[in-house]
Write a structure and sequence with these properties.
16 strands; 2-enoyl-CoA Hydratase, Chain A, domain 1; 15% strand; 40% helix; alpha/beta; eight-stranded mixed sheet; two-stranded antiparallel sheet
Length: 428
């Protein structure tokens, strides 16, 4: 039935008055519609590269409607007039299957042009999560290590408490009275004193070793630590000093009351004495044209100010202060080392002694390193066998992990301004 209908439509098309289509190539009597040029039609490139032309039809509405009806039934687009493809278009497929194509009255095949929209949906590539897994593992490892270090430090390196312990306390850097963290070039009397007291309060600690690497520092800080060392020794807990590179001035002061002083032959020690320094920048201020007006309640209130030098009375007063502090220092050394004040004064002119010379003068007891000092501490503490060594204030892994060098440096400068920039100078 479909073939009969198609033949009728083609016949109707043939009988159309050719005068109504003056520009048409269709012969109204003998010719079927002109075969469409299908060259380069079946591909997208052909559509873009060339201009497809079809037979034009008259703009008469009724005739066009009749032709459109016939062409539509044959699934063709023969009413297209000079279409130029200038941009991307859907893929056009040409179907030449004889079973599906319609034929003209003369038996010629007319290809059916079908427009189909084809889209290729890109398949997203799966991102590798290997790096994410590695990053997560690294973070977990860091957290575990940091937590273990924190716990380890909390227990002072002794996760399993044991009897017969030796506490090692470090004194490294300039001695001052402050509360800055240890290991930053300064040793504070507060930190050292607290660790000594903690060790004494621990019944399992049988002896204390002070590992000293300090050129001295504040006379007051030395006096504070001296008091704690003496108290620990008097309480029955032996205190052994292990001198490193240097243990001089205030650092020797805190060593004196120990039960035993162990040094290296090349250790720099001694320097028993006191010093008070002042700056006189008056000439600099005069050259810069800087003037000061000072209102003071007493003659000595601005003593040591950098804008002027000391008066004769101030110099005499400074000497008296120095002698007072020095006398206390000498007395402590004489009492602790079993020497007379006169004997100590003969040695206490401020000079440095090597460990070798200090031993000859009675300022040092034995030669040895830190581990020799620990062994001697075990002997004095009555420990049998290998002792358990607890490092009380050694720089820890947690401080290295979480500490900030920049922040620490700024904090040190702030804490030490009272001491380093004191308008009254420094008594050492």
């Amino acid at each position: 039935m479909n073939e009969d209908n198609n033949d009728d439509k083609v016949d109707s098309f043939d009988k159309t008055d050719s005068n109504a289509y003056p520009d048409s190539n269709i012969d109204s009597k003998n010719e079927a519609p002109k075969k469409i040029n299908t060259e380069n039609v079946g591909t997208f490139e052909g559509i873009v590269k060339r201009r497809t032309s079809f037979d034009t039809v008259d703009e008469d509405t009724d005739s066009n409607a009749d032709i459109d009806s016939n062409i539509s039934s044959n699934n063709t687009d023969s009413n297209i007039n000079n279409i130029e493809v200038e941009s991307e278009a859907p893929e056009i497929k040409v179907n030449t299957d004889k079973s599906e194509d319609k034929s003209t009255g003369d038996g010629e095949e007319v290809p059916r042009v079908e427009k189909t929209d084809t889209y290729e949906v890109p398949t997203p590539k799966k991102k590798s999560r290997k790096l994410q897994y590695i990053a997560i593992a690294a973070v977990l490892f860091f957290v575990i290590v940091a937590s273990f270090a924190l716990i380890y430090q909390t227990f002072n390196g002794d996760l399993y408490p044991a009897d017969d312990k030796i506490a090692v306390i470090y004194v490294q850097g300039t001695l001052i009275t402050s509360s800055i963290p240890g290991g930053l070039g300064y040793a504070t009397s507060e930190d050292i004193s607290k660790n000594i007291r903690d060790a004494v309060d621990d019944e399992d600690v049988k002896a204390i070793v002070l590992r000293i690497n300090s050129p001295g520092g504040s006379s007051t800080a030395g006096s504070e630590v001296y008091t704690e060392v003496k108290r620990a020794s008097d309480s029955g807990v032996p205190v052994i000093v292990s001198m490193g590179d240097v243990a001089a001035s205030a650092a020797y002061h805190i060593s004196a009351p120990a039960d035993l002083i162990v040094a290296n032959p090349s250790t720099m020690t001694g320097s028993i004495g006191t010093i008070w320094t002042f700056q006189n920048l008056s000439e600099f201020y005069d050259e810069e044209g800087v003037e000061f007006h000072v209102a003071k309640s007493g003659e000595f209130k601005d003593m040591g100010a950098p804008w002027r030098g000391l008066t004769d009375d101030e110099k005499e007063y400074a000497d008296r202060v120095i002698i007072e502090v020095y006398t206390s220092f000498v007395k402590d050394v004489a009492e602790s080392r079993g020497m007379s004040v006169g004997e100590v004064k003969d040695l206490a002119d401020g000079r440095i002694y090597t460990g070798m010379r200090a031993k000859e003068l009675g300022l040092v007891d034995e030669f040895g390193n830190l581990y020799d000092a620990i062994d001697r501490a075990a002997d004095l503490g009555g420990i049998q066998g290998e002792p358990t060594v607890v490092y009380m204030n050694k720089p820890s892994l947690s401080s290295l992990l979480f500490g900030s060098e920049a922040d620490a440096s700024a904090a040190v400068d702030q804490y030490l301004s009272y001491y380093e920039e004191s308008p009254y100078g420094k008594i050492e």
